Here is the input.
Amino acid sequence: MNPSTLRYARITGTGSHLPPRRLSNDDMVAMLAARGVETSDSWIVERTGIRARHFAADDMRCSDLALLAARQALQAAGRRADEVDLIIVATSTPDMVFPSTACILQHKLGAHGCPAFDLQAVCSGFVYALSVADAMIRAGSARCALIVGSEIFSRLLDFDDRGTCVLFGDGAGAVVLEASHEPGILATDLHADGRHVGILCVPGSVAGGRVQGSPLLTMDGPAVFKLAVGVLESAARAVLEKAGRQAAQVDWLIPHQANIRIMQGTAKKLKMPLERVIATVDEHGNTSAASVPLALDVAVRDGRVQPGQTLLLEGVGGGFTWGAVLLDF
Ligand code: UT7
Here is the structure.
């Protein structure tokens, strides 16, 4: 292949991993009741669309979930780990403070030498990572990138806060992104607004041998909800305009899986029928940076997403961060 014609970055394989431990809403109701915290299946389903989430076993780390998803994606792409020349892991729940989970993953894959780094944009992390890898591939500094979103959010949850602990789950999703003369990623659009740091955060940090501040997730749900619906529409419109496409030409909208009502609201604003939205939030809960690649892989493996189709991926979350990627699959 002539390198000068490799103008695009194209997804050539997807993979994912969901930890086997599944907690239904009724399991959460029972678990929280034992702590004197009241919730119900009907509240969770009506307000969020979530029916279950998966929690990683105590001995699993972010890089372990990432490894399982990455191996699947590499297999789907027909690539060996030593052919990968860039690894980006989007995560807010890394194995360690440092080094990066991407370096640990690289070692577990046996793909030594290529650049590897973590990207921290909370629930927008995968869309951010895909955009960065796209730019690196188009600039000629990578040819075969492994992009992973991997999270163990269950370890950040305050099980006395019913407003957040029922929402999140663990998992990982991965794609292989390769230089190609055919599209490919058509347009990307990333944003952040640090004025909203406090509405969704884990404020703790490590200092003097201790965690300073709370190591648990806190969220102003209604504030996040309101911002999310607006920015998901604007990011979607931005990538469509950049690529010269219409929403009607998008085969599948694959938004961040936080709340079915946010996803429905976004689809409505874009005048896209709900049948063209990939939703896994019911079974996965909110898996932060893993949610979009997990949903993508589910839809690839069940046959909904087909080669040649146009996909609109969207992320939104802590920071406040948001972004979209429009691509031909
Ligand atoms: O991943 C990053 C992006 N994150 C998101 O997009 C999340 C965005 N936010 C949301 O999805 C929603 O705001 C939530 C699902 C978090 C909350 O839904 P809401 O409709 O905004 O509810 P609320 O926070 O306004 O709370 C309404 C009521 C409150 O009771 P009162 O004060 O009206 O009596 C809460 O105490 O619902 C109560 N409530 C619950 N009740 C039963 C909150 N959590 C629960 C619960 N079970 N788990």
Observations:
- The chain has a mean pLDDT of 97.
- The two ends are 20 Å apart (CA to CA).
- Residues 39, 43-44, 47-48, 123, 162-163, 166, 200, 221-222, 224-225, 228, 258-259, 262, 286, 316-317 surround oxa(dethia)-CoA (CB under 6 Å).
